[in-house]
Design brief:
alpha+beta, two-stranded antiparallel ribbon, 20% strand
């Protein structure tokens, strides 16, 4: 509630209000989850598990998963891969 207007419309003989009209001004509250759903933003799945197949390279796997082969160094670093160019299938 951002504002509340009070209007007294009926009083007793001592001046005490008997009837009151309240006019609230309300502001909608939305949780962070609701706002995220409304914004329709999508983030990439950053936690997929993949098994290396014959002929796979880190850049090609990143292109297939994230749509950009430029993530290969970040993925290798995150997964503790020092020599990711020489991955074995499986």
């Amino acid at each position: 509630m951002t504002k509340l207007d009070i209007e007294y419309t009926l009083f007793d003989i001592d001046g005490m209000p008997l009837r009151t009209k309240l006019s609230p001004s309300l502001q909608q509250h939305q949780s962070a989850d609701d706002l995220a759903k409304l914004s329709d933003k999508h983030s990439p799945d950053m936690t997929p598990l993949r098994q290396v197949a014959a002929g796979d390279t880190q850049p090609l796997m990143c292109r297939g998963i994230y749509g950009d082969c430029g993530y290969d160094l970040r993925v290798a670093s995150f997964n503790g891969l020092n020599q990711f160019h020489e991955q074995q299938p499986g």
